[in-house]
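Slide 14.
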Amino acid sequence: MCRFLLYKSKEPSVITDTLNAFARMAEKSRAYDGDSQCDGWGISWLENNTWHTYKSVRPIWEDVDSFTQFPSSTLYTIHARSASFPQHKNNIEYNQPYID
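Slide 15: predicted structure.
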């Protein structure tokens, strides 16, 4: 099962610490069938009234070096993916968030 996080604040916030905690949680989490959220991840954030998105097929906990590139924002959506079907693994098109 996928994991989602919505982060909203009144003032722009840097999300690095929150992403690190979310990554640790996703790494330890397992669905009832033993599956993990290891099939990629994505983040979207609002900046100057425009949505921006970053997606990766790497597990979120293996992509922590990317966390510092995200700017301060008042709104983020984060998705840690657990592919339902093996043929859909390693396909970034299935990674949320879908903004376009």
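Speaker note: The radius of gyration is 13 Å.
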